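Trying the structure run again after the queue cleared.
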Amino acid sequence: MFDVLKTLSGLVKNKKAGGISHATPQIKQQPQPLKPTPIQPKAAVISVDNEVVVKIAEAKARELIVEAKDEVFKIRRDAEEESRRKLIDLERKEGALEDRDLRLKNLELQSDKKVADVEKLKQEHIDKLEKVAHLTRDEARAVIMDAMRDQLKENLAREVRESADRAKEEADAKAKDILVDAMRHGATDYVAEYTVSVIKLTDEDMKGRIIGKEGRNIRAFETATGVDVDLDEEGVIRLSCFDPVRREIARVTLERLLRDGRVQPGRIEEIVEQVQKEIERIMFEEGQKLCHAVGVYNLP
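Done. Tokens:
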């Protein structure tokens, strides 16, 4: 259409310039007898120009129509090819899905068959075992359950023994930790008579033996027993400690040392070890008596 308008514009310019452009196609006419050529009027020239423009426009319009039809045909052909290709892909996918469904059905059938075969073999083995053992299924189940009970009893007894041994090993340390922790939390409620043991001296000279040369005896005593020794008051020795067991061990040890008269680091450690064993034995016996008195047994 743009070309048609351009052509029309050129014709109009040529016409205004005073003649028909050399690009204008020549109109073939039938041969006429020779006679003088009359002068064409100006209106006739304009009419011829209009007919040429109309024919050119019609030609261009036909070309545009042909091109439009070709384009429509091409678009339709491409659409049909695309549709055909998609249809082929869809059919191929449907075929693949059908094949997969068929394979799944076959696998399911095979699985069901294998399960049935396994159940059949299981039943055959059970029947054979019953024939060989001369036992029914219920009797065999009872025998198996009895064996399992015996095994479980052995395992439980072993676990109980192991737990008891482990508890016995850990009880001493845990008991001490619990006692120390409880005494630390309740220390504000204690008074001096529950945290201090007092020993009266019959001879003031014993204080020097207890202190020792350069204080080595009293340092050895405090290190071995874990208590604090106070010798400030005359005729009195105070043993201070929040742990009543340690304080009692220190009190008995000091009384034995005063009776023996031999106060030295080696002797102090020896007496402390002996007294500690005796105190533990006494505590165990008293605890056992208390448990029997209240009717509680099997305690660690």
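Confidence is low (pLDDT under 50) at residues 15-31, 33-40. Worth checking whether this holds up in the mutant runs.
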